[in-house]
From TrEMBL:
Signal peptide: none annotated. InterPro entries: NAD(P)-bd_dom_sf, SDR_fam. This is Oxidoreductase. Belongs to the short-chain dehydrogenases/reductases (SDR) family. Pfam families: adh_short (PF00106). Keywords: Membrane, Oxidoreductase, Transmembrane, Transmembrane helix. Residues 375-390 have a biased composition (Basic and acidic residues).
């Protein structure tokens, strides 16, 4: 049949093809749309790396691009540690079970590490470090991010930080600096990668050394993307400075630094975060988003397509030999257009300023927790006083009269037992005196 059709086309022309008029009319438009879709889909990672048995820690690994990265690494045999808000969540349990079945990899776990709470981050990092010998860690992938829609009021973390700055930048800064000892002690033959998800919106970032975390500056409700971009720009500055600190660290075995920090721009994606931003966080906006979905489908990447640059950052062998933190876009090493990313002195200043702010915020949060929670000393004192009061109120005569009835409280039981012990001791003493007489 195909041969006959081809022969007819050669002899009589393409007009013999069924539906030729429709094909001739719409094929050019379909081809153009397909070419545009292919172009905006971005590049694919061509590097392959043996991930079997490697341990990767992932933030934001339950949705969007982070979920795709987790799935691909798990499919290649890596052990995955998902950092999540709560581990006691039925949805999370089902999600992990589903991923284990789809990847045939049961080394997928979750640990509680709420990026909206510096205290939660510290507790997780302390738990991870409190292990001897040190736990294996081949990489940390930071994909978690908050993007507040326009015209929404300022939102804050549990520590009172602006939410985009707190989750996107401060918590990842805190997590990685706390995990610094775990990264430094990995064997020299282990190629450790730390990948920070970046964004083109960093070009909109506005730096202010007096207020690096946007605590006192007026929040721009009409353009929250500038705050989001600032958080991503600060993340890039942190990557540069932290890489320099890791390079300067002298290992006991005198081996060179085997940890590489990389910022990777996955592009603009069709993820829940983007959907929330484009829909302005409203129902009507969501309806409009779905009406315009064909446009988003053509021009925005899928989560899988966006994950390719991150997978490149985890897989490319060339990165292990390069000095300094690198920036990846479309599976290529590129240079950023922001001049701040080449100013080492500025990077140190923002690193130190952020460390100082985190210390202040943690101290304030600790005081607040102490005020909200009942002091242990008062609780112990109250319990002790209660026991003494019960013992005082229970007279010897009343207990002796009622010693064999069931006590109503533990304090009453203890008091009755003490009376019985005294009675037995007194009886034994009298018996010994009688024998002597």
């Amino acid at each position: 049949m195909p041969i006959n059709v081809l022969g007819a086309v050669l002899l009589e022309g393409p007009q013999v093809i069924p539906g030729w008029e429709l094909i001739k009319t719409y094929a050019p438009a379909v081809a153009v749309v397909g070419a545009i879709k292919y172009y905006f889909g971005g590049s694919s990672n061509i590097w392959e790396r043996d991930m079997h048995g490697r341990v990767f820690m992932i933030t934001g690994g339950t949705s969007g691009v982070g979920a795709q990265v987790a799935f691909q690494l798990a499919s290649q045999g890596a052990q995955i540690v998902l950092l999540v808000r709560k581990v006691e969540d039925q949805w999370l349990i089902d999600y992990i079970e589903d991923m284990r079945e789809r990847t045939n990899n049961f080394l997928i776990y979750a640990e509680e590490c709420d990026l909206a709470s510096l205290h939660s981050v510290r507790k997780f990092a302390t738990k991870w470090l409190d292990n001897s010998p040190p736990r294996r860690l081949d990489g940390v992938v930071c994909c978690a991010a908050e993007s507040i829609p326009p015209y929404k009021p300022r939102q804050v973390t549990t520590d009172g930080l602006e939410r985009q700055m707190g989750v996107n930048y401060v918590s990842h800064f805190h997590l990685l600096t706390l995990l610094g000892p775990a990264l430094r002690v990995q064997p020299p033959d282990r190629d450790v990668r730390v990948v920070l998800a970046s964004c083109a919106s960093q070009s909109l970032g506005e730096l202010d050394l007096e207020d690096p975390l946007w605590q006192t500056r007026r929040y721009p409700t009409n353009k929250p993307l500038s705050v989001y971009g600032t958080s991503k720009l600060l993340l890039g500055l942190f990557a540069k400075e932290f890489q320099n600190q890791l390079d300067e660290y002298e290992r006991k075995d005198k081996a060179p630094c085997n940890v590489r920090l990389v910022t990777a721009n996955p592009g603009i994606l069709r993820t829940p975060s983007t959907r929330r931003f484009l829909s302005l966080g409203s129902v009507w906006g969501l309806i409009l988003y779905w009406i315009l979905f064909p446009i988003w489908f053509i021009f925005l990447k899928s989560a899988y397509e966006g994950s390719q640059s991150i997978m490149y950052a985890l897989s490319a062998k060339d990165l292990a030999k390069m000095q300094g933190a690198q920036h990846i876009q479309e599976c290529r090493i590129v240079k950023s257009s922001r001049k701040e990313l080449f100013d080492e002195e500025l990077q140190k200043q923002y690193f130190q300023a952020t460390e100082k702010k985190i210390e202040e915020v943690e101290r304030q949060s600790a005081k607040q927790r102490a005020m909200n929670a009942p002091p242990k000393e008062k609780k112990d004192k109250k319990e002790k006083t209660g026991k003494e009061d019960v013992a005082t109120n229970l007279s010897t005569s009343s207990i002796q009269e009622d010693v064999y009835t069931m006590p109503k409280t533990p304090e009453e039981l203890e008091a009755k037992l003490n009376i019985l012990r005294k009675d037995l001791a007194s009886a034994a003493t009298k018996k010994r005196k009688g024998k002597k007489a």
